[in-house]
Design a protein that fits this description.
Keywords: Cell membrane, Membrane, Transmembrane, Transmembrane helix, Transport. It is found in: Cell membrane. This is Permease. It is a multi-pass membrane protein. It holds the Pfam family AI-2E_transport. By secondary structure, the chain is mostly helical. The protein has a domain of about 140 residues. It is globular and about 85 Å long. The protein starts with a helix and ends in a 6-residue tail after the last helix.
Length: about 375
């Protein structure tokens, strides 16, 4: 043969090395081209995300009754999905924007009222004065409130930016919604095409292992996100009911924040509780105490009863590794990294475990 396998491998390595050199040497140009490519392909990313989220519901409907064909299941799923989006855009979003605007406008008054309440209730006690605690609180009151205001501004700005970002990307979302219909309608064809390519280029043994790994990763992500989404929606609804009964202002906005951050394991519930407690503290410290107790009780209910019932052992990662994944993911990629860290880490464990099993088999050592 003109080209032996070893020569092809050397040629491939040299080609990759040359391409890597050109990318590093012209990194600004390539980054610009990647940005353009991302903008072009963003509707397809929206489509894949939408199809991935809706696929479990579509599969469940088709398993429920054999008479439910693919066109019928697609119609049902997209009617529900579009209905929820319409509800969020027409009813929920205006209320959120109104609440955020009102909070920002009234922040100075809330701060003044809270400072006066603290002065009356805390700083006048003789025991605190003797211990010097009231002096410390008085001297640091401004910095405490400035820190709270900065945190609220960051949180509220993030919510507004997300709403604006979603609004500006409506056209891409709509296009992605249309593309997602075709993805779900012909998903079996796409899967067969992927498998055909894997078998053609990797051979049966390696292709089977790759497909098994892909199925396991898909199961990890689906179980984690579907379970956490259902769990967080229930917690958000219960939080809204509770805050409404307590007659807390901005109950809808605060409940949505609690529900969204509840998607993040361990740290999420505490992060989501902070805005609710701080905002309530500004206009009613006593009510803030009740809000704190209610959200704490709600989190205990979620952690002890609701979460295990819905999620079970869907991820199967110890708390140590979950916290590690959240901190690393959050440090590099922010809130999205905190959300994705756990299933990504679990997928890596599955991949690494398969490598270890293969290496142990080659050494004739039984897996420990």
């Amino acid at each position: 043969m003109l080209f032996k396998k070893d020569n092809l491998n050397i040629f491939f390595i040299l080609l990759v090395a040359f391409l890597m050199y050109k990318i590093v040497d012209n990194h600004k140009y390539f980054l610009g081209q990647l940005a353009i490519l991302w903008a072009i392909l963003s509707p397809f990313f929206w489509a894949f995300a939408t199809a991935y989220i809706l696929n479990p519901l579509m599969v469940a409907l088709e398993k429920l009754d054999n008479r439910i064909t693919r066109p019928i299941s697609l119609i049902i799923v997209y009617i529900l999905f579009v209905g929820i989006l319409t509800l969020a855009i027409t009813i929920v979003t205006p209320v959120i924007v109104k609440n955020i605007t009102e909070i920002i406008e009234k922040l100075p008054n809330y701060i003044d009222d809270t400072e006066k309440w603290i002065s009356r209730q805390v700083l006048d006690y003789d025991l605190l004065e003797q211990l010097g605690i009231n002096t410390y609180i008085f001297n640091n009151l401004d910095s405490i409130f400035n820190g709270a205001v900065d945190f609220l501004n960051l949180t509220l700005t993030g919510v507004v930016a997300s709403i604006i970002g979603i609004t500006s990307g409506v056209a891409k979302m709509l296009l992605g919604l249309v593309i997602s219909v075709y993805l779900l309608a012909d998903k079996e064809k796409f899967i067969r095409g992927i498998k055909k390519n894997l078998y053609a280029f990797m051979g049966r043994e390696h292709a089977d292992k790759t497909i098994d790994f892909g199925n396991e990763v898909n199961r990890i992500f689906t179980n984690f996100f579907v379970g956490k989404l259902i769990d967080s929606m229930i917690i958000g609804i219960l939080c809204f009911i509770g805050l409404s009964l307590l007659k807390v202002r901005f109950a809808l906005l605060l409940s949505i924040v609690v529900g969204i951050f509840n998607m993040i394991p361990y740290f999420g519930p505490f992060i989501g509780a902070v805005p609710a407690i701080v905002i309530t503290l500004f206009y009613s410290p006593i009510q803030a105490l009740w809000v704190t107790l209610f959200i704490f009780a709600l989190q205990q209910f979620d952690g002890i009863i609701l979460g295990p019932k819905i999620l079970g052992d869907k991820v199967g990662v110890s708390p140590f590794y979950i916290i590690l994944a959240i901190m690393i993911g959050g440090g590099f990629f922010g809130p999205m990294g905190m959300l994705m860290g756990v299933p990504v880490l679990k997928s890596f464990f599955v991949f690494w475990d398969k490598i270890l099993v293969t290496l142990l088999k080659k050494k004739n050592i039984e897996a420990i």
